[in-house]
Design goal:
The protein is mainly alpha-helical. Helices cover about 65% and strands about 0% of the residues. The termini are far apart. The chain binds fe (ii) ion. Fe (ii) ion binds near residues 68, 69, 90, 122 and 123.
Length: about 260
């Protein structure tokens, strides 16, 4: 039953994205979001399976992973950007278009609430502390999965393995050594970065490094470790003393999380 439900929603997602993918000229931007969604689903399945969560949370996390970025498609079509600040909150769009497209037909009401809760919360800077435990668990799995895949997208972008697209890295300015001291200072205090402070490509990399502080599950930290993303990012940043200091702290934090402490 549960696998069939995920497959039904996956089919609806595919039906929803089809017309966007066929739009002349914009296939690249939309294809990125379809591929991102597929990887977020795989990551959410991995994290949920490796963590002690209920069957309900496991199922809701997988469905929410499929739907979390539904809003990206109409966002880009209407506004020609993925930047929420200049267009619309894409998580709210995801909920609106999920409901409008009846993509949760046949999903029981309690599961539906968990899914929509995780979708709307997937891009907030910090989760409200008073969420019901199951909503919190689902939201945390989707947020970890989303971040882990953005690490990969970002590395591919900056190493130019994939074609450059102005929307991928949110219009940051490329520069080999420049970064914003305030972004680094925030990370050294253990704070997660703020998109609004980002100017340079290196700022974006630093902000993404800081997402380690925000990963909720030990399995998420293990995946980050196994993929070597942090080393890849630090190798591409300037090697000055403040960044070396940050690298030491970040790696120590990762080791601490993996030790299960
Ligand atoms: Fe998103």
């Amino acid at each position: 039953m549960s696998e069939a439900l995920v497959e039904r929603v996956a089919q609806r997602f595919q039906d929803f994205t089809g017309p966007y993918l066929r739009e002349p000229g914009d296939g690249f931007a939309y294809r990125l979001k379809v591929e991102h969604t597929n990887r977020v689903l795989a990551l959410a399945t991995d994290i949920a399976s490796a963590s002690a969560v209920s069957g309900q949370v496991h199922l809701a996390a997988r469905i929410a992973a499929l739907l979390h970025d539904v809003g990206r498609f109409p966002q880009y079509k209407i506004y020609r950007t993925f930047r929420d600040a200049e267009s619309a909150n894409h998580a709210a769009f995801s909920v609106r278009y999920t409901l409008r497209g009846n993509m949760l037909a046949g999903v029981p009401a309690d599961l539906r609430r968990l899914v929509l809760g995780a979708v709307i919360l997937h891009n907030v800077r910090t989760l409200p502390p008073t969420l019901p435990p199951e909503t919190l668990a689902v939201a945390r799995i989707v947020r970890d999965s989303d971040k882990l895949d953005i690490f990969r997208v970002m590395i591919a972008h900056f190493s130019q393995e994939s074609p450059l697209h102005p929307e991928v890295a949110l219009h940051v300015q490329p520069h080999p050594t420049a970064y914003t001291p305030a972004v680094l200072a925030g990370l050294l205090k253990g704070e997660t970065g703020d998109y609004r402070e980002i100017i340079w490509g290196n700022d974006f990399k630093l902000m993404v490094v800081g997402w380690l502080y925000d990963l909720n599950y030990r399995r998420s930290c293990q995946i980050l470790h196994d993929l070597g993303y942090l080393d890849t990012i630090f190798d591409s940043l300037p090697h000055d003393p403040p960044i070396r200091d940050l690298r030491g702290r970040i790696m120590a934090h990762l080791a601490h999380r993996l030790s299960g402490a």
